[in-house]
Amino acid sequence: MIVLVIWMRIKLYFENEKAIKKSGIGRALEHQKKALELNHVEYTLDHFDNDYDILHVNTIYFLSYQQIRKAKKKNKKVVFHAHSTKEDFKNSFMFSNALAPIYHRWLVFMYKKADAIITPTPYSKSLLKSYGLKQSIYAISNGIETETFKKDVVKEAKFKEYFNFDNNQKVIISVGWLFERKGFDTFCEVATLLPEYTFIWFGDKNLSMPSKKIRDLIEQPPSNVILPGYIDGDIIIGAYTSADLFFFPSREETEGIVVLEALASNISVLVRDIPVYKDWLEDKINCYMGNDTEEFVKLIKQILNNELENLSPMGHQVAMERSLDSIGKKMIDVYSNTLRKKE
Questions:
Q1: pLDDT tens, residue by residue, 324-337
Q2: Are 39 and 6 in contact (CB under 8 A)?
Q3: HEC assignment per residue over the chain
Q4: Residue 4: its pLDDT value, please?
Q5: d(CA 196, CA 302)
Q6: How far apart are CA 67 and CA 49, in angstroms?
Q7: Positive or negative, the Cα torsion across 26, 93, 123, 295?
Q8: How far is CA 268 from CA 246, 265, 272, 319, in A?
Q9: Which of 179, 199, 326 has its CA nearest to residue 270?
């Protein structure tokens, strides 16, 4: 069999990197770079570099629009990575619901400029199709660098030392923006009902632009909730691999890279039962799912008291199936298909 290999150079475009690098979109870009490197695909991050075949856009701001216009004038192909939807914009920060219709129109305007669209899950793909987008839309996970989240006693010791934890302390963690959409309010409600456990939410408090409800919780969290802000490196890896549970009660996601990180860490995972997980997570098979505060409290007690099966090995397999090497191969297929398309 003859395999046609198309040489290509990709321009990965990411606007406002300083503000977004702490987010899932920022980590998605790092994953794209690594995925392309593992598959020996040349790429550039230089905003002024015009020697490329495909512009792969990750952000939706005005400078991204200008990059797309320049690419089109030079007859370059454009692949848009659709990390954002109207649905995951709502309930995120102050005035987000009021701005959602405008944001939706801008998203559609931007995504329509692409020759092809990549989005992380079949669920987010279905949302984009409901917007009336006609381009080819590919559901490809953001992937996970599985080696990063291997158990490491040194990193775990750094995590416990940082928070002054002893080995008997039961710790529940979550990671992400402190948004109502992310379920931070539910996290605090659950913590209030489980004072015997320590809850930690890792996420930048200054950039969250919270609603009043969330701001009040940030300023006065329950006594057993720790908000250390954004932390990366050994401490967060140690938290993932040594905590007793990853609890992520988000109400809406396009995928949830932090969930993949938790699965890769072999930690027990509890999430809210929402549509985005339908095609890759299964309740009581590779994770546990709940719907409200009462159910979360019950499940957490059962998981931490070893009354339920440890599903972390099955969850870890889900992460392994989304290794960056395999994700890179899927991205190359999208690029190749897009280059072959005629105008």
A1: 999 999 999 999 99
A2: no
A3: CCCCCCCCEEEEECCCHHHHCCCHHHHHHHHHHHHHHHCCCEEECCCCCCCCCEEEECCCCHHHHHHHHHHHHCCCEEEEECCCCHHHHCCCCCCHHHHHHHHHHHHHHHHCCCCEEEECCHHHHHHHHHCCCCCEEEECCCCECHHHHCCCHHHHHHHHHHHCCCCCCCEEEEECCCCCCCCHHHHHHHHHHCCCCEEEEECCCCCCCCCHHHHHHHHCCCCCEEEEECCCCHHHHHHHHHCCEEEECCCCCCCCHHHHHHHHCCCCEEEECCHHHCCCCCECCCEEEECCHHHHHHHHHHHHCCCCCCCHHHHHHHHHCCEHHHHHHHHHHHHHHHHHCCC
A4: 45
A5: 14
A6: 11
A7: positive
A8: 6, 9, 14, 13
A9: 199
pTM tops 0.70, yes or no: yes
Spatial contact of 79 and 334, defined as CB atoms under 8 Å apart = yes
Rounded-to-integer distance, Cα 320 and Cα 18, Å: 30
Spell out the domains of the chain, with CATH numbers in brackets. 9-143+323-340 (3.40.50.2000), 146-320 (3.40.50.2000)
Q: What is the mean pLDDT of each run of 10 residues along the chain (343 residues)?
A: 64 80 82 96 96 97 96 97 94 86 97 98 98 97 95 96 93 95 97 98 80 92 97 96 98 96 98 97 98 98 98 97 96 96 67
Which are the contacts of 303, defined by CB distance < 8 A and separation ≥ 6?
244, 245, 268, 270, 288
